[in-house]
Amino acid sequence: PKEGSGSAVPSNPTTEPRVESPQPSEPQSTAPQQASGNPNPETLYPDSLDPNIDVQNYTLDLRVKPEQNQLDATASIQLKTTQTVSRIHLAFYGLKISSVKQGNTSLKFDQQSRKVTIQLGKTVPRNTSITLDIAYSGVPRPVLEPGETYEDGIGWKKHKNGIFVLNEPNGAMTWFPGNDHPSDKATFKVSITVPSKYLAVFNGTAQGSRNTGNQTTYTYQSIEPMATYLTTVHINQYNVERSTLNGGVQVRNYRPVGISKTFQAAELAKLPDMMRFMESWAGPYPFKEYGVIFTEHPTPYALETQTLSTFPNRPLKDWGFLHEFSHQWFGNSITPKTWSDLWLNEGFATFFQDLYQYPREADLKAFLKTRHTRNRTQQMKPPYIKEREELFSQRAYQRGALVLHALRYRLGDAEFRRILKVYYNTYKFSNASSEDFIQTVVKASGKTDLKAFLESWIYGRLVPDFPELYR
Ligand code: ARG
Ligand code: ZN
Known about the structure:
24% helix, binds arginine, binds zinc ion, alpha+beta, 22 strands, four-stranded antiparallel β-sheet, eight-stranded mixed β-sheet, globular
């Protein structure tokens, strides 16, 4: 989460002003307009996505000189067309492509600031499998987004002794060409070649390393589908710590050698407890590996990179680790269909963070009452976000979490848990939208009045009443 997210509670909740409800009891639904054809059009990052393709696999071969921050790479992209097309486009920023090939045929391409357009040479019907081999190189540059406060932007970041990436939402294009959108998940096979004094890390299963002279190539594979924003590369010198969770999940934790070997060890020792907590809420952990990697840099936020969460070099509470861990289910296994649906990640992670932080119901209620009251005073806009510069604001986190807390009090804990599992099992390893969530809850509960209830919490301009907190 962002620094301090969810934790900025006034020390004495009882002194918070009690805000009388200024709104009508039935807030107006501002559900997204259903555009003809695609019911889930991307309106915040339309250029990151080519809706006419579905990438199956990225095979990336990255050769990195960390001191010079030089990247020489090939991307082999296996995709299927979902429409009849004669050209496709991939998000790509700052690096220079030298060739695009389909088999032995060189294809024409045209690079613009944030994308490359590739001419397929003929019209290709839908459902055709195509493999493109793209060679590129250069010095990766982070991309700066409106509303983004992190230095020069996101994506591939060079720091004192190494390199790391923070992609969310559109930084993956700073180091590989792709369909850089959460709706198009794919498998990955990645090899990273670095001078042998470095260790290079990627998500998924570590498949070993090969030493050739003074270079070492590390290979990783991610067989579960992964969104581009959840991929991560870290290059540095690390102390690595391995263990096994649940008798099966392989844990690998990485701390740069400049960081104490026991940094955040007490919080990480709670991982088995966090595993029990999350599995009781959502069901089995979705992947075969987990771990955390610390950056040398005190980045402004942690990121739930798939199977290997990225954490800053500054102390975080145990619930900060729980937040990122819970994203493995909500965000990584179930991924939003559009960026406007981001509360399905952040609202859920904040909800679990709250429950973990306040195991006693009375404490949780006092905390939520303060948040609800404050969100009303601030007139916080809905968690479904249509303004690009507000994507990572507290709207998705705090008002997003209130959707779930309100639903839990309305249904009761047992019924809420049952329905949460239905939602998770319906959409795991896939994508979901806010509408999918609403429909699942209405259908699984058999309560049609929950449609208007959830719409007011998710799309309503005003923060709805939360009577259970004020009794
Ligand atoms: N998803 C991250 C989390 O768990 C936060 C990412 C913030 N991203 C950004 N570009 N500001 O909370
Ligand atoms: Zn989060």
